[in-house]
Amino acid sequence: MAVVAGLLLQPSFTEVLLGAVLVLFLHYVITSTLRFRREPPGPRPLPIIGNLLQLDLNRPYHSLYELSKTYGSVFKVHFGCKKVIVLAGYKTVKEALINHATEFGDRDLSPVVRDLYNGHGIIFANGDSWKELRNFTLVNIQDIGTGKRKNAEKIMEEVEYLMEVFEKHAGEPFDPKLPLDYSVANITSSIVYGSRFDYSDPQLWEMATIHPTYAKIWYPIIQLYDAFPWLARRLKSWGAVVDFVEKKKARVRRLVRVLQDSHCAQERRGFVDSFLTRQQEESERQNSFFNEENLVTCVLNLFSASDTTSTVLQWALVIMAKYPHIQERVQEELGQVIGSQRPEAKDRKALPYTNAVIHEVQRVANIDPLSVPHAASCDVTFKGFFISKGTRVIPLLMSVLCDESQWESPHSFNPDHFLDDQGHFVRKDAFLSFSAGRRVCLAESLARTELFLIFTSLLQKFSFSPPPGVSESELDLTPVGSNMLSPTPYELCAVSRF
Fold first, then answer.
1. Of the four listed, 29, 84, 149, 155, which is most buried by Cβ atoms within 10 Å?
2. Mind listing the pLDDT tens digit for each residue in 189-227?
3. Cα 77 from Cα 71, distance rounded (Å)
4. Ligand-binding site membership of 441 (annotated)
5. Which residues cross the membrane (predicted)?
6. CA 446, 248, 149 angle in degrees (round to 5)?
C-alpha cells in the first residue's frame, strides 16, 4: 500500500513541466511589475524622521540641489514619513510640467494646507473648483471690460506715491522694503477692492507685511506639521500660525462686507465686485463655488502674489547699487528711448537691455526655489521611475535657474543671458521664475507689468548706491528665508537724478 500511495503522490512529467512554467510566469510578472514600479533613487531614510537629518531646514532648497548631484534629476526624499519626489534641472522640470502637465498638474494638499484652507481658493485647491475659480480670476484681474482705468494706470499712480516716499529721504540711507511692500500691495488692493490705502493706514501694514514673529516660525512649523501632524497640533507655535491666518481672513471679510453694502451689479470696482455679481447669478445653483470662503481665499492668494513682486523689486535695487555700471547702462538706455517721458508697458520692446536686467534679477534672486509643491494626479511612469498617485512632487526651480547647460554663467549676475549678439532681447525657455504648465503663476502677466513699470520709473528718477562708508563689494547678496528668498536686510541711498 505504501508503494502504491507513493506512486499516486509522485507528480507526472506533465505536472512538473506545468509547475515550472507557472513559476517562470509568476517570476516574469513579478519582476516586470517591479521594473515598472521602480521608484526613484534617494538617500536611505531613517524610521519616523526620514531624511530630516540630511536636510538643512533653513535652506531646504540648497540641500535638495546638492542631493540632485548625487541621485540625479529625479529622486526621492522623506520628510518624516512623507515621501517626496524631487525634479531637478531644466529638461526634467520642463518635461514634467509641460509635456506631462496633466499627470503633474495637481497641487499637493498637505495636512497644514488642508487644515488652514480646506481646499478653498486657487493656489491650494484641485478639481473643478480650482479650474473654475482660476479661469474666473484670470479674466477678472485683467483689464477686460472694466470700463475703468487700466491696470497700468493704477500701477503708475502708485509709483508716484512710492517716489514721494523715496524723495523724502533726500539721498540719505533708508530701507526700501516697507515702501515697496506698501506700493505693490496697494496695486493689488486697487485691482481687488477698487481702492488704495494711505501709507499711514494700519490696515495697509497688516495687509502688506508678515509680522516678524510669524515669519520666523512659519516655515519650520509647516515642515514639522507636514511630517508629524499629531505632534505639531500640540505646539503653541502652531496655534500662532492658525491665529495669524484667521486674522488675515477676518480682515478680508471686513473689507468684503463694506463692498457688499454698496454693491451694484452694473458697477465693477474690482475683483470682489465681479465675484459678488457672479455669486448673485449663481444663488440658485447647488454647490456653487462662488461662496464667501472661496472669495476670501482667492483674495489672500492674490495678495500672496504681491509679496513675490515686492521681493523681486527689493532684489533689483540692491543689485543696481552693487553693480553701478549696469545701473548706468539701464539709465542710458532709458534716456535714449523714452527720455523724461513716463514709462509705458509698450516701451518694453524698445528697451532690450533694461528688460534683460529685470529678467536676470528674477533669475538670480530665485525667490521661490522650491516652487509650491505639486502632486501626481494619477499613477505615472516618468523617466523610467514609477510615481504613485497623490505623491508630493517638488519641481526644484532653483536647479532650473542655475542649470549649467542653459546659462553661460549661472552663478553670476549677467544680463547677457537674455541678449543676442546684436543686443536684442532673447526669451529663454529655461526662465521659469513663474513656474510652468497648469500651475504657472496666476498673476504672471500683472507681475511682469508691475516689475517693468516700477523698476523703470525708479531708475529713471533715482540712482541707487550703498550708504556712505560702504562699498559696492560689501553689499551682501546672500538670501534669507527658507521658502521665499529675500535679500539680506539693507539700506541704500536713492539720489534724485534731476
1. 155
2. 999 999 999 999 988 888 887 655 555 566 667 777 777
3. 10
4. yes
5. 12-30
6. 30
